[in-house]
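We modelled each protein-ligand pair independently. The example shown here corresponds to the zinc ion entry; the chain sequence is given first, followed by the ligand as SMILES.
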Amino acid sequence: MKSIWTCFVLGIVLTPVIAKHEFTSVAKTPLPVTRNLFIITVDGFRWQELFNGADSSILHSEKFTPDHSTIGLQYWASSAKERREKLMPFFWKVIATKGQVFGNRHWQNKVDAANLYSLSYPGYNEMFTGNTDMQISSNRKRKNPNINIFEYLNRQPDFAGKVAVFSSWDVFPFILNSERNGLPVNSGYVATNGETDAQQMINTVQRETITDKKATRYDQLTFLAAREYLQINQPRVLCLGLGETDEYAHDGRYDLYLQQASQVDRMIADLWHWVQTTPGYKNNTTFIITTDHGRGSRTGNWTSHGEFISGSSQAWFAVMGPGIEPAGEIKSDEQHYLQQLAQTMAGMLGQKFKQAEAPAIALH
Ligand SMILES: [Zn+2]
């Protein structure tokens, strides 16, 4: 049992930190309702690259960008607008035209992880449960006691059996506690159902050609598995958790980090194309794209993130779908938190997620 003194001291230390999360961004009118919702997460991808494209000092650092001439040719330009369009053309030419993009701190538009730790598990926990949890302070494979939006939806008559999760990182089944709630969560190098030729091919590649299996599966395999599932099972809610951006950043490889961001952009474009050419999805599917945390904001520490690395809580998100105003990049002084995304997802599906304390985000 915790001593009363511990509670007292923690109370004094933490009250100011918790108190700062006043929700200035609260949806006052109902969110635009959609039939299908896809949430795509890009692990540890910084707002700095999303909004400004490649960073000059990291790009020109031999330590982080070996052979900078090729990468420079691909991703460098003199203006931030050109650079970001080179890095993520679909994002900037389509999402930022048809949808809304939040988190450019240049305009004082801020999105933050509300948890104290700025690590992945705590970030996904708040994003999917609508609450922060002081007890979730690491990436340890611990079964999450908190109820998440996906299991909540999966228990509603309109969504039962129509929710699916695919992730590269093998901790997702614990974050979502799929053992407790039976959600279909395909993560890491777990085999797919193997019902189709494509699924069998994915399984073969995973089983036989990838000898050095890490905690994070290649995003391309996660993406292919998710796309094949969409084709066959036609879920209404899909979570696609991509993870290699974070891996390459931790490895200190800015070149591979940028290349991966570019690949993610193509995957999102491909998914959107599928949606807009598939009956049942066309014009009634909303995308939410976000990240679980930021990273260090300096050239010396961009590779890492965590409680003591300044910049690590800084995040971003984008939305695009039916009824969402094409307001583009939001340039007003606002503060949003990742934990608001759970209720935002529920609201977009015409639901109320009772367990989430953080309110839905006010869109433009
Ligand atoms: Zn992460």
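Residues 43-44, 120, 246, 292-293 surround zinc ion (CB under 6 Å).
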